[in-house]
Structures are given as structure tokens and as C-alpha cells.
């Protein structure tokens, strides 16, 4: 198959490869917060409700590995670490903002469809 859904040179579909990483809720939320500017770890942790210290650390490492976020260590005592979006991360955040706008606009219709579906399938039949 040709096009965006085709496997890349390494046999991995580029769309699935990127969406597997960015499709999780934490990555999207971290990117959204970093879109506002660089932030320290604890500031991100306070800003993102429900994220654990471990999950935030894992998410930041993944974003850094993928080139979407950068990590800067300042030589202070104790050392301060700041995270920021890279150019690649900022280019993604533009598309993420469009997706968020679409979701906000269409959420009422989606919820109404879910309610109608659930009501029609209340007896558990497909």
C-alpha cells in the first residue's frame, strides 16, 4: 500500500508509530502545557491533574527521545531541570490545538450519539 498508511523502510507504519506515542493522554497533556512555555518538572506535575511522578518522568523521557521536548539542566544547587518543546514539538502542538478545537466543538454530538447507542443497546445485544 502506498501513502501515509504504508509501512516505512523499517516495516513500521509511520502513522501508527507516531500515534502510538502521542495517542496516550499524558503525552498530549504534557505537550499542551509545554506549549505555554518551558516548565520545571514539579510545575508540570502540579499542572497536570492525576499524573504521578513516575508517569510524568516516563512521558518526558519518551517525548525527549522522540525529539518533541528538550531537557535543560541548570548548574545550580540543587540542579534545576527545565523542559521545553523543540521545534518539532511546537509543529505538532499546532496540529494538536486543531484536534482539541475539533473535539471541543463536536463533543456534545459525540456524547449524544453515545447516549443514543447505549439506550438502543441497553439489553446488551449487538
Tell me what the structure shows.
It is a single chain. With 126 residues, the protein is mostly helical. It is built from five helices and three strands; from the N terminus they run ααβααββα. The protein has helices at residues 14-22, 25-34, 41-47, 53-65, 87-120; strands at 39-40, 69-74, 80-85. The chain is globular. The two termini are 33 Å apart. The mean pLDDT is 88.
Compute the CA-based radius of gyration.
19 Å
How does the helix and strand content classify structurally? Answer: mainly alpha
Helix and strand sequence: HHEHHEEH
Number of helices: 5
Number of distinct beta strands: 3
Element layout with pairings:
Blueprint (H helix, E strand, L loop, with lengths): L13 H9 L2 H10 L4 E2 H7 L5 H13 L3 E6 L5 E6 L1 H34 L6
Antiparallel strand pairs: 1-3, 2-3
Q: Could you write a compact summary of the structure shown?
A:
The chain is mainly alpha-helical and 126 residues long. The chain has helices at 14-22, 25-34, 41-47, 53-65, 87-120; strands at 39-40, 69-74, 80-85.
Comma- or semicolon-separated keywords:
126 residues, 5 helices, 3 strands
Amino acid at each position: 500500500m502506498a501513502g501515509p498508511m504504508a509501512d516505512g523502510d523499517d516495516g513500521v507504519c509511520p502513522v501508527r508509530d507516531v500515534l502510538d506515542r502521542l495517542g496516550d493522554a499524558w503525552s498530549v497533556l504534557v505537550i499542551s502545557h509545554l506549549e505555554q512555555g518551558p516548565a520545571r518538572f514539579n510545575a508540570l506535575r502540579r499542572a497536570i491533574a492525576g499524573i504521578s511522578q513516575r508517569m510524568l518522568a516516563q512521558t518526558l523521557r519518551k517525548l525527549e527521545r522522540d525529539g518533541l521536548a528538550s531537557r535543560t539542566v541548570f548548574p545550580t544547587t540543587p540542579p534545576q531541570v527545565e523542559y521545553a518543546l523543540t521545534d518539532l514539538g511546537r509543529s505538532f502542538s499546532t496540529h494538536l490545538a486543531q484536534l482539541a478545537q475539533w473535539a471541543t466543538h463536536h463533543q456534545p454530538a459525540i456524547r449524544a450519539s453515545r447516549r443514543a447507542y447505549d439506550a438502543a443497546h441497553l439489553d446488551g445485544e449487538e
